[in-house]
Specification:
alpha+beta, 2 domains, 8-stranded mixed beta sheet, 5-stranded mixed beta sheet, 9 helices, 25% strand, binds 2,5-anhydro-1,6-di-O-phosphono-D-mannitol, binds magnesium ion
């Protein structure tokens, strides 16, 4: 911790080191992994800040495995985080939104790594060209295959309840890194003047009840009947003036979730006639956000079950997703029943 003019600054690395002492048998591997993600996030942040000034916005001319046009920044962020995780020595393989299959790190150092990471290197990337907030999301697990061997697909298909850590970075009006290792949620804001993520949001707790609902209502006609009814419920006046709720939708999961986490609210991406399983990917979008939601006292569901209890069948499996204030998520489940 640095003390400056009576201000105490706790950097991300200070905090990670302090927290490591809470686990007497920890050897610092997870701490090192988290710190590598933090450093890579600063590099990506620098590039995002320059979007528009340098030739980095726009399409890269390639299509990823989801059939989506890759943005240049998607490709850049994917490479920076992949390189950081590979060189950390703690990570033996990754799964990313941008690749069909998992990437197995085969060098000697990485093979010994204890962790695998699934990530969406740049979430909400269709927003980049228009100066709207985007994010990066990470889900960290202990490997199942023995250390020293190459990791396999099954290492990446563990249910979300097995996550040891989840992280998101939001590149917004300021840049923040929010993470959990299963012991609460803490948020760090990047201070550009010193180039450090500094603890700004300790022990984040989300309100149990909120007033914001976040959904792409343009898809209304395609939604299941329960969601249509829920939207009407959000818009109705009630006796205690809790409703109508406020509608807020950026179209960037990290940003929409982050606002609701702090203010109280719910994010919805339902199944719909065009996308029977919704749009969001269970392994690297829903699971890490669900872990953070629960650790902050919120909830996350696919409409019927807890997200973290679902065993993924494939890397890019999609799932309907409802996450945020606990009571709001449970009310949506009731509407869907
Ligand atoms: P991406 O990973 O390709 O950026 O897509 C995921 C994004 C989420 O951030 C966001 O919640 C959702 O897609 C928005 O989708 P839509 O434009 O259908 O509302
Ligand atoms: Mg995404």
């Amino acid at each position: 911790m640095i003390v400056m003019n009576s201000y105490k600054i706790t950097t991300l690395n200070d905090f990670i080191t302090l927290r490591q002492k809470d686990f007497p048998y920890a050897k610092g591997e997870l701490s090192s992994l988290l710190s590598h993600i933090g450093t890579a996030a600063k590099i990506v942040n620098k590039k995002i800040n320059k979007a528009g000034l340098v030739d980095i916005i726009g399409k890269a001319g390639m299509v990823n495995i989801q059939g989506e046009n890759q943005q240049k920044l998607d490709v850049f962020a994917d490479k920076v985080f992949t390189d950081a995780l590979r060189s950390s020595g703690e990570c033996c393989g990754i799964a990313t939104e941008e690749n069909q299959n998992e990437i197995v790190f085969s060098d000697k150092l990485a093979k010994k790594g204890k962790y695998i990471v699934s990530m969406d290197p740049l979430d909400g990337s269709s927003n980049i060209d228009y100066n709207v907030s985007v994010g990066s999301i990470f889900s960290i697990y202990r490997r199942i295959t023995p250390r020293g061997k190459s990791v396999k697909n099954e290492d990446f298909l563990q249910p979300g309840s097995q996550q040891v850590a989840a992280v998101y970075v939001i590149y917004g009006s300021s840049t923040m890194l929010v993470y959990t290792t299963g012991n609460g949620v803490n948020g760090f804001t990047l201070d550009p003047s010193i180039g450090e993520f500094c603890l700004s949001h300790p022990s984040i707790k989300t309100p149990e009840e909120g007033k914001i609902y976040s959904i792409n209502e343009g898809n209304y006609i395609y939604f299941p009947a329960g969601i249509k009814k829920y939207i009407k419920y959000c818009q109705e006046k009630d006796d205690n003036s809790a409703r109508p709720y406020t509608s807020r939708y950026i179209g960037s999961l990290v940003s929409d979730f982050h606002r609701n986490l702090l203010m109280g609210g719910v994010f919805l991406y339902p199944s719909n006639d065009k996308m029977p399983q919704g749009k969001l990917r269970l392994v690297y979008e829903c699971n890490p956000i669900a872990f953070i939601a629960e650790q902050a006292g919120g909830a996350a569901s696919d409409g019927m079950s807890r997200i973290l209890d679902i065993s993924p069948g494939s890397l890019h499996q999609r799932s309907p997703f409802y996450a945020g204030s606990k009571n709001m998520v449970h009310r949506i489940e009731e509407f869907l029943r």
